[in-house]
Amino acid sequence: MAPRKSNTERLGGPPSTGSEATRLIRAGQAPETLAKTVGPPIQKGSTVLLPNAASLYDDANYLTYGRQGLAAQTALQDALAGLENAAGVTLYPSGVAALSGALLAVLKTGDEILVTDAAYKPTRRFCDHALKRFGVKTTYFDPRTPPETLLGEAAPATRLILMESPGSLSFEMQDMARVAELAKPRDILTVADNTWGAGYLYKPLDHGIDIALQALTKYVGGHSDTFMGSAATADPKLLRALNDGVLHLGWAVSGDDAYQMLRGLRTMPTRLARHGTSGLEVAAWLRDHPMVGEVLHPALPGAAGHDLWKRDYIGASGLFGFVLQPGPQAAVDAFLDELDLFGLGFSWGGFESLAIACDHQLTSRKLLRSYPGPLIRLHIGLEDPADLIADLARGLDVYAARRG
Ligand SMILES: *Cc1c(COP(=O)(O)O)cnc(C)c1O
After folding, report:
1. 241 with 102, same domain?
2. Is the distance from the beta carbon of residue 195 to the nearest atom of ligand 1 less than 6 Å?
3. CA 128, 154, 110: angle at the middle one, nearest 5?
4. What are the pLDDT digits (tens) for 245-278?
């Protein structure tokens, strides 16, 4: 796109005369030039003022409306495109909106899609309700299905495969590169929800996946206080479809939120390094604890999916699961309630540690519904891992006592 000219040429000049009400309307307009700060300016604008009548409908040379294209949002899109090695990135007001926005941009009535059974639960809700209403059929697959078998299950109407690796809650790894390689000649699009890999630990587009989604809400934001999602693609045609989808469905994100995401991006590699090493330290400690059956963390040597993680990832995030020795729900609740440093709450990717019980959510799945004991998910934050381990040790003592 050609660089856009300043829209504010007309706005300088002497202050307006007239009554105070009129002068207050004209006062305090955007300056023509801005001091250069380290980050982009946060522009707040729905209306964009044009320099003359001819430019009102001159979309080729002027930004004419503020839903897209303001400074902080554009700076974030450029930064994310660099991170993901993408031709471009579209932004959405949440991670779920990125998922729904991207799918609606490329699917049509009569299409069928294959979706991992380990998908983030709201993804499943969107497929089972919204997509179904528009005549798109979803079939769930076990993420451990070999890619050749999975593609063998694809029907002539299959248009898209939606993957998440590691899977939500259960952390199965999938050979997404191989799935993409097999899907391409059959004109089946591949989409990865890469929130765990954050576009940094893993880069789906480099592995042949068509669209990389992430909830920027998690590691890019990094402070559990801002919602946003992104879709990245290396294919100019798909980028046009994603941009059209944003235009048609009216998504917009605020300059303040885009700025917060850019701020988070600066420190994301540093934070992820700490989340990753602390997470592995806690995971290794849990693996040896008598109350723990299995640790679900692909970066842990010997754990399920470790070979694929090692092949494709440059590090680990701080999110993983573990299976407790069998015990009643009351004992699980007592374990969680005993924790001091782990907040009990959904979402993750912030500086703080969090814990949830997962069994309740597994009931909505088709295939991966149960484990030998209660399933717990931890997010390891930026605290000292020794303190987190001490907290978990106290909680597991309570669990052991309550199991009877
Ligand atoms: C949190 C999450 C989302 C959704 O992000 P929101 O910004 O909360 O809507 C999507 N996918 C995964 C894997 C997530 O963990």
Report:
1. yes
2. yes
3. 50
4. 999 999 999 999 999 999 999 999 999 999 999 9
CA–CA separation, 118 and 377 (whole Å): 14
- Whether 81 and 134 share a structural domain: yes
Rg for the chain, CA atoms, rounded: 24
C-alpha of residue 215 to centroid of ligand 1, in Å: 5
| 384 a catalytic residue | no
Whichever domain contains 191, its CATH number is: 3.40.640.10
Q: Is 215 in the pocket of ligand 1 (CB under 6 A)?
A: yes
Give the domain extent around 343: 265-402
Q: Is 126 helix (H, G, I), strand (E, B) or coil?
A: helix
Are 125 and 256 in the same domain? yes
Mean pLDDT of 121-136: 97
Does some domain include residue 23?
A: no
Q: Which pLDDT tens digit goes with each residue over 188-223?
A: 999 999 999 999 999 999 999 999 999 999 999 999
Q: Is residue 124 located within the same domain as residue 238?
A: yes
The active-site residue out of 124, 159, 203, 218 is 218
Measure Cα distances from 317 to 152, 166, 221, 299 in Å: 32, 11, 14, 9
Largest Cα separation within the chain, whole Å, is 83
Q: Which of 196, 216, 218, 226 is the pocket-test mutation for ligand 1 (most atoms within 8 Å of CB)?
A: 218
Provide the whole-model pTM: 0.94
138 and 188 assigned to the same domain: yes
